[in-house]
């Protein structure tokens, strides 16, 4: 099939700039890129319209076009929060990523990131798929760095991570820095994967002003790396990751989180149990499997 992927992310401002020049992009952007690549590996002809102006180029078999490109013709399109009429395909699938309800429903089908997401957006009967993980990136074991605690999230969603992490000598918060908050560290993909594989604990104290995190690629990737994760009971975290993580109730209490991290750092039995549970959960989200679920949404 000729598949076209497009995004409406530029409507909110292209926060990441050039996806291929920056070090780290957000979870939704990473889903788009990996899904396009997997469609190619399944034998499809794939075009992706980027949310910024760019000359056409090829990336891992995907034909990339800038926002300014003319109409692209195909058999089906996956529109990531894209409500315009850019491209010409008989089947149009909305992949909703935002915390705002879909602007309109003029699509062949709508897909959400989780059941919680679909319900909150007013379409509880629509399918939910979400993101995936490149399991091959996490096959080899690396020696764990003693006491290494990490967090990867938009800092304004997990602002408590700064206070929790301050209690540990070896804490790394990765993401693009946000004005008015302590600095975070952007990493390239290779460095991020290595950090996930060397970490002892991943904290995810999610406390958004309104529901906004309906999947969390960083949680999934740490699970694939065998790194135990502590999450709060916000948004879709319990639905997706409740069975393979430590879940702490809100409101976030710093002392409780610090105690949970210390328990994981000291309790080898608990650490090993959660590490194995995370790896098993991540197997369901191997990208080739996830890509096939998106293609199934066309039928």
List the helices and strands and how they pair.
Layout: E1 2-7, H1 27-41, E2 45-49, E3 57-59, E4 62-65, E5 76-80, E6 91-95, E7 109-111, H2 115-120, E8 149-152, H3 160-165, E9 171-174, H4 189-198, E10 201-204, H5 217-224, E11 229-232, H6 237-241, E12 246-248, H7 254-266, H8 268-282, H9 287-296
Q: Do you know the CATH topology of the largest domain? A: Rossmann fold
The secondary-structure class comes to: alpha/beta
Termini distance?
A: 13 Å
User: Judging from the principal axes of the Cα atoms, what is the shape?
Assistant: globular
> Rg to the nearest angstrom?
19 Å
Task: Please summarize the sheet with the most strands.
Answer: 7 strands, mixed
Task: Give the overall pLDDT as a whole number.
Answer: 95
What is the CATH domain class of the largest domain?
Alpha Beta
CATH superfamily caption of the largest domain: Glycogen Phosphorylase B
What's the β-strand tally?
12
Order of helices and strands: EHEEEEEEHEHEHEHEHEHHH
Give the number of helices.
9
Widest sheet: strand ordering: 3-4-2-1-5-6-7
Domain module tally: 2
| Proportion of helical residues | 25-40%
Give the low-confidence spans: none
CATH architecture of the largest domain: 3-Layer(aba) Sandwich
């Amino acid at each position: 099939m000729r598949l076209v992927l497009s995004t409406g992310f530029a409507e909110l401002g292209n926060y990441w700039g050039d996806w291929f020049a920056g070090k780290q992009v957000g979870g939704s952007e990473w889903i788009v890129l990996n899904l396009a690549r997997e469609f190619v590996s399944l034998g499809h002809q794939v075009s992706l319209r980027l949310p910024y102006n760019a000359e056409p180029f090829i990336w891992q078999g995907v034909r990339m076009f800038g926002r300014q490109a003319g109409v692209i013709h195909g058999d089906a399109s996956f529109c990531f929060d894209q409500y315009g009429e850019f491209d010409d395909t008989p089947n149009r699938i909305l992949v909703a990523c935002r915390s705002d309800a879909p602007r309109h429903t003029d699509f062949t089908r709508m897909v959400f990131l989780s059941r919680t997401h679909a319900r909150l957006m007013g379409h509880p009967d629509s399918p939910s798929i979400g993101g995936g993980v490149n399991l091959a990136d996490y096959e080899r074991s690396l020696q764990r760095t003693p006491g290494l605690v990490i967090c990867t999230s938009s800092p304004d969603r997990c602002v408590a991570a700064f206070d929790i992490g301050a209690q540990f000598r070896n804490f790394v918060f990765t993401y693009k820095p946000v004005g008015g908050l302590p600095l975070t560290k952007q990493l390239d993909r290779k460095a991020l994967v290595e950090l996930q594989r060397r970490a002892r604990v991943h904290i995810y104290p999610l406390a958004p002003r309104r529901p906004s995190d309906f999947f969390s690629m960083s949680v999934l990737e740490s699970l694939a790396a065998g790194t135990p994760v502590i999450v709060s009971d916000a948004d879709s975290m319990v639905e997706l990751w409740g069975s393979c993580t430590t879940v702490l109730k809100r409101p976030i209490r710093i002392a409780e989180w610090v105690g949970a991290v210390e328990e994981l750092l000291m309790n080898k039995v608990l650490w090993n149990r959660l590490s194995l549970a995370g790896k098993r959960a991540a197997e369901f989200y191997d990208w080739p499997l996830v890509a096939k679920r998106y293609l199934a949404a066309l039928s």
